[in-house]
Amino acid sequence: MSRNIIAILRGIQPHEAAEICATLIAEGITRIEVPLNSPEPLKSIEAMAHNHGAEAMIGAGTVLDVQSVTDVANAGGKMIVSPNADTAVIAASKAAGMKSYPGVMTPTECFAALKAGADGLKLFPSFLLGIEGLKAINAVLPAGTETYAVGGVGPANFAEWLAAGVTGFGLGSSLYKPGYSAADVGKNAREAVAAYDKALRQ
Fold first, then answer.
1. Are 10 and 21 in contact (CB under 8 A)?
2. How many angstroms separate the first and last alpha carbons of the chain?
3. Catalytic one among 16, 46, 78, 122?
């Protein structure tokens, strides 16, 4: 079962990337991003894509320019996630055949990103938007728009966000921090997946 959870592995290093990627996949998380402000991010993406590209959607986060989109594509990435809604980055991602998830906060940004071709919207930071903000924006978004809450979300409030209409989550430090072992990540992923599945049933 593929879940609408994007694992954000900020700070991961190439030597551990493939193992941690495999652990996430085994626990049911198959959308994985390496923020470009991590150490040697393209090498980590390449390692993950080479070993697990058929089982998971591997990509990059914190993508701020068009050249980075090209670099990620060349490394085997299939997904571009950004903290902002840069229409040039969105267009380049789609031209390269990649999924595009730009960061948005306001209705203006949401509609501009969708018009540029975004596959989904990263609500960031979601703790600033809040549940009521999500409800208000959801009321005007096109039906079927994918929205991912990122920043201040986790197993404890999955149910609340899903009830308000969000379709997925981006999880960072609750899954991985530099120094965590694959076993640590596996335990965190197991707890997140269990909470997500339970919240979906509510």
1. no
2. 18
3. 122
Active site residue 99: no
Sequence-distant (≥ 6) Cβ neighbours of residue 57 within 8 angstroms: 30, 31, 32, 78, 79, 99
CATH architecture classification, 5-201: Alpha-Beta Barrel (3.20)
Report residue 1's pLDDT band, with 50, 70 and 90 as the boundaries: low
CA of 56: how far to CAs of 2, 32, 50, 163, in Å? Answer: 9, 7, 11, 27
What is the rounded CA–CA span in Å between residue 44 and residue 52?
12
Contacts of residue 152, Cβ cutoff 8 Å, sequence gap at least 6: 125, 126, 127
pTM for the model = 0.96
% of the chain at pLDDT higher than 90: 98
Q: Is 115 a catalytic residue?
A: no
39 neighbors 74 (Cβ within 8 angstroms): no
Q: Alpha helix locations (H) across the chain?
A: 14-27, 41-52, 66-74, 87-95, 107-116, 126-138, 158-163, 182-201
- Residue 73 contacts residue 60 (beta carbons within 8 Å): no
- How do residues 143-164 score in pLDDT, each as one tens digit? 999 999 999 999 999 999 999 9
Mean pLDDT of the chain: 97
Q: Which of 16, 33, 78, 99 is catalytic?
A: 33
